[in-house]
Amino acid sequence: MTSPPPERIAVIGLGLVGTSVAMAAGRAGIAVRGWDPQPGAAAVAAERAGVEVVPDLGSAVGEAEIVVVCAPIVALGTAVAEALAAAPAAVVTDTGSVKEAVVADVSRRARAEAIPRFVPGHPMGGSERSGPQHASPSVVDGIVWVVAPTERTDPRATERVEAFVAAVGARAVRLTPGRHDRLVAFVSHLPQVASSALMDLAAVEEADEPEILLLAAGGFRDLTRLAASDPSLWAEILVANRDRIDTALGLYVERLQRLRDRIVAADGEAVAATFANAKRARLGLAAKPQVRAGVAVLQVEVPDVPGALASLTITLGDGGVNIEDLQIVHSPEGGRGTVHLTVAAGEAEHASSVLEAADYDPVRLA
Amino acid sequence: MTSPPPERIAVIGLGLVGTSVAMAAGRAGIAVRGWDPQPGAAAVAAERAGVEVVPDLGSAVGEAEIVVVCAPIVALGTAVAEALAAAPAAVVTDTGSVKEAVVADVSRRARAEAIPRFVPGHPMGGSERSGPQHASPSVVDGIVWVVAPTERTDPRATERVEAFVAAVGARAVRLTPGRHDRLVAFVSHLPQVASSALMDLAAVEEADEPEILLLAAGGFRDLTRLAASDPSLWAEILVANRDRIDTALGLYVERLQRLRDRIVAADGEAVAATFANAKRARLGLAAKPQVRAGVAVLQVEVPDVPGALASLTITLGDGGVNIEDLQIVHSPEGGRGTVHLTVAAGEAEHASSVLEAADYDPVRLA
What we know:
Two copies of one chain form a homodimer. By secondary structure, chain A is α/β, with parallel strands linked by helices. The first copy, chain A, has 13 helices and 13 strands. In chain A, the strands form three sheets. In chain A, strands 3-2-1-4-5-6 form a six-stranded parallel sheet, sandwiched between helices. The longest helix of chain A is centred in the middle third of the chain and has 32 residues, at 177-208. The radius of gyration of chain A is 23 Å and the shape is globular. The two termini of chain A are 33 Å apart. Chains A and B meet through helix 7, helix 8, helix 9, helix 10 and helix 11 of A and helix 7, helix 8, helix 9, helix 10 and helix 11 of B.
């Protein structure tokens, strides 16, 4: 990447993602102008993020080197085309969760000569909250930010977006729009469908079996956490990526059917073999994208009393250990005070020593 | 429950569950004798749990009022029948994860007149670890312990087991063996299959698409955490409960297919309606069995730096708040420092005040 980061950008759409990107850009010394069709959101973003809010899209993008369009998926095509027209020298990027549908929409709406300046993007961060009042630069800290140029995208435009992504503290990963959509279908969209379907099934069963959720322990809770996400947002994403979801969901159902056949045939060995493959892969999976392939997971038992987690986290903080992630985990069938700590792999030994010195008994899992 | 708790019990099988039960019983002032076919396990249990370990099953159960059999599923029938024969006055219970298969096995192996003294059971606790060296009385603290008498079980025997369960600190929930097996198929066994199948699918895709797991954020990780469980243990459980799994998995696949059809038909409204049902049910789901219907979940943002969790947990500990559960949560597509705190519902207001006084901004989710 030879491009310098931009000095001035515009953010179109000041919801959670747009305002967070604006804040991260401001932190990096980049001047930001913003616009949102809802004056209320714009006012909050202005106050919270120090964004210079302007009354229309045209004034926002006027002097921007890069325009970041953070609109809902159905509005992205129009907003990107408008930004390309209003800022004839700027690079325009978007933050939508699917890419091929947005690319097609922009192609229909923008003038052909403007298309090379459009660089499709997808910051893989966010929050269950929404709205600029919950924005924070930490939304983009260290996340994977997919940059997805097409064959028509100017390579210099792509490099400029990548320089911007690096400047705000995220990690640019280049994929074609098709690969992006195919991969997120498996690791983001399919898990959402699997989670909501399981929770919906249990809720229907609960009508006949009120005790069912009483028996639902940590494992069930892990599987259904995503089911609490925003229904309309997700319906929009899934429909926009429907061909890829069709494939991924088809393969998933096939796999479930095969396991079902083996279980019904009492072929425990075949079931255990598939489960062993899955276990190996899971232990190799990173805990946090930005330190992937460089993390360690330590298991620590803690008593279930007030202050127990405080003691643990004080011990680690005093020892200078940065906790990448901490989860109270549960066995397949119960709950108790077992904590999984994720730390950078290079810190694992130090973290273990710190814990052992304080009479914890850490076990390295991965 | 009019039965007093027992004064003497025997534990057959001194792995993680057996040793933990022995420790919890010892804590309650109950005398415990133990036996395990593996002398190594028995020695660890003796040292760690203070169990009086004896050289054979007969001497273990001799004076016991209740015998708790904690063997692997395939060995349960034989061990229960042996215990019933060796201790003609004792009540015998087991801890297997499925119940109908065990009941059938015991019926084949035990003398008919002994059957009323067998009370099938299932403590819904455990740990990813195994072996007596990781046992702890906290494994059974506050968990749901299913007591599953058949029509042939003596009601007084059932009451004696329930009194024992209460004495060790767990919560007895009475279900028939069939209902137990049906319910755990949905909330325990099906999640395990769904999780392992998803992880296995992603691992196979990774061969062609090495970047796929780079894009796997918090949601995928939640869905696949169970995939790290013991493959052989689970294969055994699933095969033993295969008829119920067949039904539950069939309903799950049907639901996935219906969602797939609606997504492919671009019927976003129908998808959103199903997701909204699931969201409602998920928000109503308890975080921890023993405080079910009595918990609150608070969402708190924390910076991603060393000591941040320590500050949060110190604040709560100083305020006398018992953290029922704490998780660093992730949005469907990213990771950052958002913490979900679970506290008893009666403590939620107090916890919020404590946090606000320390300049946190808690949001009550459920």
